[in-house]
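Folding Task

Wanted — backbone structure
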Amino acid sequence: MRLALALTCLAAPVLADGCPTAPDHSEEMDPLYEALLVAPDETTARLITNRMWGYWDNAPDEASQAMLDEAMRARARYDFLRALDRLDTLVGYCPFYAEGYNQRAFVNFLREDFAAALPDLDRALELNPRHIGALSGKAVTLFALGREEEAQVALRAALAINPWLAERALLKPLPGEDL
């Protein structure tokens, strides 16, 4: 596995800052996005989404993977300062890796620093517009900021990709809309 990772890293184009471009998993992800739209229930959709996380969490190289993994372990221990430190380093090293921003947004969301989470969610979505975690994260962050109408728009975008998201319970009609 490590040899395969090392060979992949050597073959990947390297950005000026030293981080190779993030792996392109669109060939593997496209069928998963299609499967979400026809998933018969929430459990099936969750299994599909779990497979997607395996691709999103696949960092560009061994160094960035170590940063991401360490940040996620720190987050799991509620060591948010360590997690943020690792994620700050990760996005500085790999500024074109969406999951670094998404995870930093999640840590800030858990810290209830919603204003800090929002720009990272926007950046993650610039890099990966179909990132369901970032889309639903943006919706709940906007709800937390009291920006209901924007949150509903973000939630609709997330539900257009995965209609089984648990956040669907937050869906309300927009002005002039019937659900």
